[in-house]
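Quick one, T. Sequence first:
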Amino acid sequence: MVVWIVDAEGKSHRLVDPFQPSFYAAGPVAALRQLAADLSKMRLAAPVGMTRRQEFWTGEPRDVLEFILLDPEQQPALLRQLAVPRPGITLYDCDLAPALTYCHVRKIFPLAKVTVLQTGVGGRGSGVGGGGQTFRSPAPSPRPLAPDAAELRYQVEGSAWDLEYPEPPLRLMALTGQGDEQGRGAPLGKLRSLTISCDGETTTLDEGDPETLLAELNRLIRRFDPHVIITDWGDAFLVPALLGLARRTDTPLEFDREVVRRRIRSAGRSYFSYGRVVYQAPSYPFFGRWHLDSRNSFILKETELAGLLELSRLSKVPVQKMARASPGSAISMMQLDRALTDGILIPWKKGEPERWKTAWDLLVADKGGLVYQPITGLYEGVAEIDFASMYPAMMVHHNISPETVDCACCPDNAAPEIGYSTCRRREGLVTRTLRPILLRRQALKRLRGVSIGPARERYDHRQTALKWILVTCFGYLGYKNARFGRIEAHETVTAYAREKLLTARALAEACGFRVLHAIVDSMWIQKAGATEAEIRDLCRAIREAVGIDINLEGIYKWVSFLPSRVNPALSVANRYLGAFRSGELKLRGIDLRRSDTPPLIAEAQQRMVEILAQADDLAGFAARIPTVLEVFVEYAWRLREGQVRLTDLTIKRTVSKEAGEYKTNSQIGLASRQMADRGVAVHPGERVRYVITDADAPNAEARVRAIPFLAPDTPYDTGKYLELLCRAAETLLWHHGYDCGRLLRILAERGVGVSRSVP
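Structure tokens:
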């Protein structure tokens, strides 16, 4: 295992630790002997001896044969061999990430402050007896550690769970590249220039002479010796482009602190997740320093570097890998780490099937949280109350974990409606994992509340990172391939959630409140003359009744629950907007929150919302409508007169299939084909950006133009963009009778005629 240490002066040190992780197998003695012989002969693993570990589902000790993986780099080859069916054999811990097991065995974590000691320690060879059985390999010794191998020993200062911890002295360098075009988000074509920033200095290099560009980049890397290189589109464009230049000019790049052979990969992977297609760019981690791509890291985008480091410390996932992983990966790794710490055998492949259910059982149990249809309208004095981290808090409060649900020992502790019991005798793995995370987030939020400036921002980023892993922990309970997942546990959580929301609603109505809307863990309530103290008293009563914290999110000056655009007679659960008395806006499902809204339309709606947000009540809302209409007309004139940039009219949509698979002339299909016809691959899950040029043109190719192929004189469809502008204004003013028809009549009265396209 290669370990990089940064000392107090910021100097990096490369250490090598001869590490051999363990894995386990259970089964008949004869089958275990054969497995040991096979793996020894192939020089992949060596048997150590019989030992006892705790089985996950039953909690009982189990006799297992321990193996050591002789070379962590051979783990893929080992898994290929273990995948061969072996009747009676059950495997554990064999596919765990070597970095996780290394951190567990050495009792360290990423970014730990350590003193490193090196000591000669004898390795563990094959042929060790235990548990009354002896397992010797009939083949020659498959290379266990030599007796004089030097393992690293660490003295760790503090714990990964310390609320306050020192940050290492990291030097950051930022790289940004410009291509031929800046379409579809990532730059396109050849690398034209490179901007390098570090320690307050910025250098821009042109591609004209590739050898000079690479030589200067290498010189700056040597001069500043950064620990972290942050790029913009580094994985999708910049790093492969620089590697291509390095290959053509035979100039080594010095991104890595050790010599590695790089393979240029331009295509990532597309996958389906929660109803949408997602594209993940190829990964280009560096060796001996970090490469963080701000465009290929959800965690870095949402929580900045402080949140990323927080999750890496707690999950024991290396920083570069954590940056490119999902929050769900972090909670999954924390569960694995908890299992290792508790001596629990981690099954290689999920072997617990969903229990048999009748059609009636499915109808009762297979449901999510409660989602009400709001009472459409514009209201004032509405309070929003939210359960705090409802699902993870319930999982801890009720000890909901795959191995504790539907236990035989506690039949009287049943979940409402579905009847699954939860164990009172042993605490579940998921519960043990989540409890410290919930407590830590509460502590970070308290520290944020008493801090100012950069310290406040840092605490906020760290608690936001924990929020995201708490959001995902519930979904992993029901994920079919989750190592510690079980659909019955997932159903138990939603059953408790429905009961608690119904209890909260009943208490609110008993106190004289009208419930206007409710979504899973939130309620919007209204009562004439209700004070903030009265609402907080209600929250305390709900908390005592259900055992979960519920807080006052805020009181709205006004809030608008909107109808469906398809059927105005129906309301929509996630389409509303409002202004709190604090001045904060809450916007859900409206145009400026949608990623496919053109920037100009989003800007116009934002300005209109900000005007309405100044209103203290419904009367003030109505009084500001004329001002809103003036902004609406202003943007309509800009569209009519061509006083807009084409990039401000960009529509951005996610491609769900390959360009050739679009059978109809939809706008996204047309834009995708334009890209493909010009040699630019757009993968499913990536976004394509285009401008509507003439929505009703007989020639389908003339209806839209993909952004990379716009010309200064490219026309745009004025009428279509005015329709989008009208829809944005209609959303805000619907309850005062301003639909698109009325808004278009206002434009006609103001002399804003509609022509089909403007050059």
